[in-house]
Design goal:
The protein has helices at residues 34-51, 69-74, 95-106, 125-132, 149-162, 169-178, 183-196, 203-210, 214-226, 230-242, 247-264, 271-278, 282-292, 297-317, 321-333, 339-342; strands at 26-30, 56-61, 83-88, 112-118, 139-142. It is α/β, with parallel strands linked by helices. It has 2 domains: 18-142, Rossmann fold, CATH 3.40.50; 150-341, Up-down Bundle (Zinc Finger, Delta Prime, domain 3).
Length: 346
């Protein structure tokens, strides 16, 4: 059985996904992904307001709170309206707030939903342990940071699905590749496409909206190089650089592609199984398999080594980083310098 992360008490309360957030006497919204936390909290508020439009919503800062603040907000109102108390900064809570909240958990107020937001760290552990141990009869909504491409793709896909829209796998790949920063940026891009377009969303639509993104340009170069289209890849590379693109993300895109290819080059089995093993989405496995066609392990290994060397050059290790990237693109387009030797005589 896998060991629990150090310092974390085994939760005896329900663990609820952010997109299934629901009211409870106490709701612990934990983890660093603020976008998911905000959406979970909004879902809870919408559910409470739908049940009773007279809902009273109050906000409290755990770091600035003094004894009595929580009990005052949770005290019965004159007309008995339900209450929702949103507490931010529990990872910075004051000693006074800690003591008062621990007492509150012993007997939560009726018709009150207390939402506690904790982004991470050890401060407030005593309170978290009490909640996870069952005090207050609460639930936990864990909002872990979304890092893997497979998880980012799943998030973006869910954005379109919840809006009743379909996005093509290739378009989804381009979109996720173009927004490798915070999840909020990716969500905003999804919502813009949903608002500004109709019908199914294809790759050309995403390119039309976000062709100026460096990462999108980078993956266009990578796609052409991996397909063996050296001339096209070099033209795209020159266009990207002339448009102000930094060589670093272009090399990073090539490295990401080659790593994915290495994972599936000799792998057998369904895409779903391989995706689970390697932290990829099934469509990413299928794409990596297509990219790996025509490659041999030795050529792929050489390409990966040269990519690592080029990465160092574009980060200050060479006088002419653009020339280094051009050499890399040409090398990859030739399947690691093995392509011509392996082609059968006509």
């Amino acid at each position: 059985m896998a060991a629990r992360p150090a310092g974390r008490t085994a939760a005896r309360i329900p663990q609820v996904p952010w997109d299934e957030a629901r009211p409870a006497p106490v709701v612990l919204v934990s983890g660093p992904e603020d976008l998911l936390a905000d959406r979970a909290t909004r879902r809870i508020r919408e559910a409470l307001a739908a049940a009773d439009p007279s809902l009273e919503v109050s906000d409290l800062d755990a770091a600035a709170a003094v004894p009595g603040d929580l009990s005052t907000l949770a005290s019965p109102s004159l007309f008995g309206e339900p209450r929702m108390i949103r507490v931010a900064g529990v990872e910075r809570l004051s000693e006074g707030f800690l003591a008062e909240t621990l007492r509150y958990l012993e007997s939560p107020a009726d018709d009150t939903t207390l939402v506690l937001r904790h982004t991470g760290g050890v401060r407030g552990k005593k309170l978290l342990d009490a909640i996870r141990g069952g005090a207050g009869g609460g639930i936990e909504i864990a909002c872990a940071e979304v890092k893997r491409d497979a998880d980012r793709s799943a998030f973006a896909s869910a954005e379109f699905r919840s809006a009743g829209r379909r996005i093509a796998p290739g378009a989804l790949r381009v979109l996720v590749s173009a927004f490798q920063g915070g999840l909020a940026e990716l969500a905003s891009a999804c919502q813009q496409l949903i608002a500004d377009t109709t019908g199914d969303i294809g790759e050309s639509t995403v390119q039309a909206y976000y062709a100026g993104r460096v990462e999108t340009d980078a993956f266009a170069v990578a796609d052409a190089a991996l397909a063996g289209r050296a001339g096209e890849a070099l033209v795209l590379l020159r266009h990207a650089i002339d448009s102000g693109a930094d060589p670093v993300p272009i090399v990073a895109a090539l490295a990401a592609k080659l790593r994915s290819m290495a994972k599936v080059l000799d792998a057998r089995g369904p895409a779903v199984k391989l995706a689970a093993e390697h932290g990829m989405a099934p469509w990413q496995v299928d794409r990596a398999r297509r990219d790996a066609q025509g490659w041999e392990a030795a050529g792929l290994g050489r390409a990966i080594v040269m990519t690592a060397e080029t990465d160092e050059k574009v980060k200050g290790g060479a006088r002419d980083p653009e020339f280094a990237v051009e050499r890399l693109v040409t090398f990859i387009a030739a399947r690691g310098a093995l392509r011509q030797a392996q082609e059968p005589r006509r």
